[in-house]
User: Fold this.
Amino acid sequence: MRYILTITLLLLYTWVNAQDQVVKMSISFENSSLKDVLISLEKNSDYHFYFVEEWLSSDLISGNYENETINTILKDIFKETDINFYIFQEDKIIITRNNIIYDKLPEGFLKRTEEFIVLDDLEDLEDEGNNPVFYTEIKSVKNAKIETIRIGREDKNNKQKRFILNGFVRNSITGVPISNLAIVVKGKNMGTVTNDNGYYEISLPVGLNTLEASSLGFENLLKNVVIYNDGRLNFDLNESYESLEEVIVKADADKNVKDANTGVTKINVKIIKNIPLILGERDILKVATTLPGISTAGEGSSGFNVRGGKTDQNLILLDDAVIYNPTHFFGIFSAINPFTTGDVNIYKGNIPAEYGGRLSSVFDIKTKDGNTEKFSGEASLGPVTSNIALEIPVVKNESSLLIGGRTTFSDWILRSLDEEELKKSQANFYDMIAKYNHKFDDRNDFKTTAYYSRDEFSITSDSLYSYSNRLFSLRWDHSFNDKNRGSLILTNSQYKFNIEFDGSSDIDFKLGYKINETEFKINMKYLHSKTHRFNYGISSKLYAVDPGNIEPLNSESIITTVIIPKERALESAVYLSDNFTINDKLLINAGIRYSFYASLGESSQRVYEEGLPKSESTIIDTLNFNKNEVIETYGGPEVRISARYFLTTDFSIKGSYNTAYQYIHTLSNNTTVSPTDVWKLSDLNIEPQQAEQYSLGLYKNLDNNSIELSIEGYYKRTRNILDYKVGAELLLNETIETEVLQGDGKAYGVEFLIKKNDGKLNGWIGYTYSSSLVKLDGDFAEERVNGGEYFPSNFDKPHDFSIVANYKLTKRFSLSTNFIYQTGRPVTVPVGNFIINGSEFVLYSDRNKFRIPDYFRLDIGLNIEGNHKIKKFAHSFWNISVYNVLGRNNPYSVFFVSENGEIKAKQSSIFSVPIPTISYNFKF
Amino acid sequence: MKLKNKHQIISLILFGFIINGCVEPFEFNQETFESALVIEATITNELKSQEIILSRTFEFGEEGPNPESGADVRIVDDTQGQFLFIENEAGIYVSTSPFSAQANKNYQLLITTNNGRSYSSTQTVLTQNTQIDELYAVRETNDDDINGMSVYVDSFDPTGNSKYYRYEYEETYKIVAPNWVPFELIVIGDIWPWCGVSLIVREQPVRVCYNTVESINLNLTTTNGLIEDRVSQFLVRFLNSNDYIITTRYSILVKQHVMSREAYVYFEALNAFSGQGSLFSQIQPGFLSGNIFSDNNPDEKVIGFFDVSTVSSKRLYFNYEDFYPNEAPPPFIVNCIPYAPTLFNATGTACGELISGLNFNRIVYIDENENPSISFPGPYLMVLRPCGECTALGSTIVPDFWEE
Assistant:
């Protein structure tokens, strides 16, 4: 009740304020356009106008006003037009076009709309004014009675069975159109969605229909509409009072069922706030791994395996720029600042034609736009890291700067430990992000992001490892007209690592690796019609890889400087896709992308004797290429096609077929990912990877989109995926192709997901049954692994089950839990011992023939929101969580060591006991 | 180059306390055992009876090796030369006549096992011959903060062709029994009630002995990546200052094998697989293909590498006083505190510990026990055998090469 009162008072305040408006002004103009008049009004006053240019007629007007209120002036100049205006927050004026027209207003309604000037009348709308429900609009909608509205005059000559109802839906406070709002007809399997201008149109059967629109962040709308003829009905939705605990704008609640793409996962950062944390970190990418189809090789392995794909097959984009290593500290923390992140879209099935270059998935991470109205921020304090994000308006209502930074205290913790071994070690990381967004006008929007992350660790006193990601992106969105929009994107990303070895001998060295890519992309959208929505564009990316150099660290060192020559390549693509709505039920998204890759000089490439395994002794020629000379080209068409068919309004079936090329590979002879894995470009001897995927799924939303059910199956084949000869040396190897094997992959699986997005109990349950296989075959024994047969990949985990649940006890307290179960990953184990030179060694089994024990883990968390006093400086939020409550010692890897000539099996685990953490967050 | 240790460096426990990562023993239920032929075949440019050892893999937890007997072993060269091997001991095949590998010849190893399966190696040539420049010992404290003697080797190949090296050593040390006396106690009756011993003058002088031990690890290095083909201060052996083997005089013979790149890669990978695993990343193990294959079934796993390498060796001697002047010698390998076991057991119903200790060759006499007491009840003061008889640890025969 208290909230309701507050809101009532607020409304009253605005109203009183409006009444107090005594600001008078003088202005005169002759033969000016409406637009110019508005601009000059804006210049000469504190008012800000919000309008759509096309609505203003180009007719020239003249006028002279002295000491008039803005109300009078506007009323006068809009007299001859169909323009309405609405003043709110004292200085904001929203110009609207003949939207809400009531010829009879209900009693009491006037109180709220006194400043809303009705200038034009439309006849075909009737409203039953004697219904006093408008009074209840400012109460919680739960208590509201259903208002009945009659549309159109009954025309006896009209024999039509259905009539068109249209109108606009806007936010009652800000007047901003509400787009993508689903309006459904209760009990009739009919519905529509508002467009970007908040406009909707729906065909209704004659007579009584109950319209329902619900959206988180807004109060539910429920109206009885008795329709006799075509007509218009506008809605103003009140913002939901739950906004105090963060509004979750869930406009596209039915996307799950409606979108044509298969295998799309959207993670909203706000939703993940409540799930239990590891070491106090809210981690978007960790959350992703609890969803079907996305997994990691284990705790502490960076990189993701999406639908049986390797970790290098994911395109991870942060504001359009590639981030090569999105993790800190061996994957235990993600390098993505949760406070600055808006949404993450993960495409694991049909990848839109716009994206390319990686086979398995796209993680499209978008940083949120900073607040352009007021300075705000968010900060957290955890046991290992602390984090801050600030939103700074630069030009009010136009531009804003968002900055975020994170750092760790781990160095301090390591130093304060008792253990001698750990005192020597150090580990620290940080990441920083800055984003500037500037909305010049309705047609031009400019965004730029800069990001830097760095990790440094040393485990022995004489070595220091470091790696860093740097990226920069620039995006200009321009709308040419209602139908054509475009984005110009320029990005640059760099990933590098360094190893410094400073021991006591003369082999001290410094080793560095660096990859840099610059991409230019033009992405266009053409909304041809309701049935055809095109997306097309071109992109071109220049890679420059410094595969490594090793330098002596001091003059005593006899290490020779080795510089493996740079690699360069150009990857370009053109693409076109059409979102083709064939009918109400069938939607096809057909896309094609043609990618083209050219490996560029300057370079020396080795030619190997055909029919023999590649080795230093089979080199028959070395070709030298000049700078920018094309060494080798690859390319081909990539098909991206998917379709959705509505079985019922909230039940759909989707299928997709997808192919892709990938021209860049990671070199790693580890079973899991390490930060010193290097990226290699395709060249004369290393061919690009290829994949094709089929998926088919069923999607059903229940209970007004609050529960999403889906089941999706996929079958994927890959070619030319990189693997290595046993015991290969990959770092600083000039003839890397002699160590590399290119093989085939095969993956298939079924993914189930039940997701409940809101309510007291929310969360999801996911289960995946999958298989991921690799085949390495060749003409020579050294090129064959497991006799050239398919074998499970390192991350093949047939059963993967997870529950993420959150239960709201009260408005302030909520309990959350994660439960994860996975089949243990495959390992290669010794199957026999032998002695060579007096030492005992082991003979290994076929690769990945055995499995480590299954993985399971339970986490629980308690979230406490600070109280909701509006005037309080900051909203605080506590999270207390225990990771691995059961204390299960999940083996991360199993290995075998020869100690004093005897073979011993060892297992390593990362989090073997329950880890309690507490973190404090606040927002201001 | 230490690069190969990348994974070991990343291996240790980070954040130990917080993350609580740990490495612990793990019970792995071995379900399958695979039997495979293991071939140790390194022939060198030394003129000698070359040796090839054949065995089979053995199960986890069993004692190895498992010799492969009855095989036909021969080496052929590309000039129709043929060297036959005969089985000397179980699984150990020795060339019928001494020979040395010659430069510019291709050698191939051919084996036919008892069960009729045949195996052959690829054609292999002798590697570059490079001498050890220097072998020296330094007393220092190593990276693990242990004080001791480091034995280093330097080598240089101006042609730059050697690049891949393997070191073996054979160490010989002089042992002086600290409690040696010229008498020994022998058992003359050990069946109760006839329990008796007799003190006699030793026939053999067992005070000074020598023991020789061969290295058993694969000690590899490469100069690949260095400005010149120079092995500099490569640690072949580290002796803890507390190691009793340096108590008097120590000698080490270091053999430097120059290997082919392929052999190096093979043995290096073998080493890597059994090295320390890593917490965060594990090297992908698997079956390593050498240069010996089955003629019958190309997929059969054959272990080992036929290596034709040059050998250069150097010997080094040092005395304890040279590096540890006026310092107490390292503790002896066993505790030499005397005790006095009795002739009969406590109840007098059987022969005592003195008899059994002598029978098991566990203890030796050092003196009469002039004042028997409760803690020293027996008639003689005895010590553990190594304290009085160096033959417990070595041989009294002075090696041919030994220099004082």
Q: What stands out?
A: Chain B touches chain A through 88 residues (CB under 8 Å). Residues 185 and 199 of chain B are 4 Å apart (CA to CA).
